[in-house]
Amino acid sequence: MNKASRLLAALLAGLLLTAAAPRPNIIIILADDLGGGECGAPDLPTPHLDRLAREGLTFTNWWANSPVCSPTRAALLTGCYPDRVGVPGVIRQETPADSWGYLQPGIPLLPEALRAGGYHSALVGKWHLGTSSPNTPTERGFDTFHGFLGDMMDDYWSHLRHGHNLMRRDQEVISPEGHATDLFSAWACRYLEERAQAGGPFFLYLAYNAPHDPIQPPQDWFEKVRRAAPELSEARAKLVALIAHLDHGIGQVLETLDRCRLAENTLVVFTSDNGGQLNRAARNGPWRGGKGQLYEGGLRVPGLARWPGKIKPNTTTDRFTLTMDLFPSACAAAALAVPPGIDGRSFLPALLEPEAGDPPRDLYFVRREGGAEYGGKTIEALRRGDWKLLQNSPFAPLELYNLRRDPGETTDLAAAEPQIRSQLQRALSEHLQRGGQVPWQPPAGGATAH
Questions:
Q1: Are strands 172-173 and 167-169 parallel, antiparallel or unpaired?
Q2: Do 252 and 329 fall into the same domain?
Q3: What mean pLDDT comes out for the span 307-334?
């Protein structure tokens, strides 16, 4: 069977599955700053992520839409390139002078699209797309929210950011006690128990803060890592402990699915918002760079999916996948129409048939940032086939790499391949023009934080 035939078969199978079965529950689990080299790292046991891989599908080519938090989260929930929805950079609404995005009101988010199929939706964990009206989770389509509005916690136990309490239960300010990872895991499990009783399909977006800086694992987890691997540096041991603790929380969620008899009709997808932070001992596999950068280490992230009875266990796909593809994929799994105008593509065919073909497309990445290093400007990258054009600093020349021959991005070919550089630069300019049509600051006189 050729690729076209396999793709048609996968699409037909998807239609039959969604027509014959109840709409599946959908869980998207998003880690924060988990690089593509951490899953399967020899010094990092992750038995529950390993279980997802063993029982499902591993994506070998998954990229975050941006090397930083807010833009990738905007892409996940809108199905669009982040600058097309007003989020080219990190939203820091509590410090407006250093905020580089504003999620545009009126753009439908994933929970709103799923509502047409009777889905109840919840966000547990980190939001990071605004701290005030109209951009809070329950104002943007989620039926319930239990988590943290901001960009990062200054402390995993106090949960404050710049002295502000950004923890919420829907719109209520709350002051829970405990490590943030434990809280988010417990709240997610409680939501699953509630939905098992209530019935009907649900969408849970479980967005952890871990392993984002500050690297604060619970002390018992840190001591466990020190005993098991005394050769690790203290920095690496802390990060390993924080990620292992995160994996434990994911295990609690999977166990709750089993206990509540929800697992068989639930699609679980796991990924991260960007690569790992190198100055916090992260490992991004064989790829150059890390969080904040447009080299592969800043963009390559894990991708896992499990859907019992639909996804073949212990399989892999080399489909090129971006975070924004989650939106149309969730809609396709739920047999729901995708709103017009999105940029993402459904990977449902790859879930049902890992070798299903995928028409080629350009991949575009963007980040806007302030400070002396960026000056409020953007950095961008565009991949076309084996070629990748990037500008990792707004004040640096464009760089060109052939990722098939040079996956580590060691040899800049911008001068040696002027024709390819010119072609990709034109395509990149078109993306920048489209993004430039969308405001990325709140309107004058608009709502402010808190």
A1: antiparallel
A2: yes
A3: 97
Mean pLDDT of 194-219: 98
- Please compute the mean of the pLDDT values over residues 353-371 and round it to a whole number: 92
Name the helix (H) or strand (E) containing 297.
helix 296-299
> Strand order in 303-306's β-sheet?
172-173, 167-169, 144-148, 120-126, 202-207, 25-31, 266-272, 303-306, 57-59, 315-317
| 235 pLDDT above the threshold of 70 | yes
Domain boundary among 329, 352, 375: 352
- Overall residue count recorded for the chain in this entry: 450
pLDDT of residue 445: 64
CA–CA separation, 168 and 162 (whole Å): 16
Cα separation, 170 vs 164, whole angstroms: 17
In this predicted structure, what is the pLDDT of residue 297?
A: 98
* H-helix segments, 44-109: 47-55, 69-78
Give the Cα separation of 76 and 245 in Å (integer): 24
Q: Specify the pTM.
A: 0.94
Q: Which of 352, 381, 397 is the last residue of a domain?
A: 352
Of residues 137, 121, 79, the one with CA closest to residue 338? 79
Q: What are phi and psi of 66, to 5 degrees?
A: -155, 155
Is residue 65 assigned to a domain?
yes
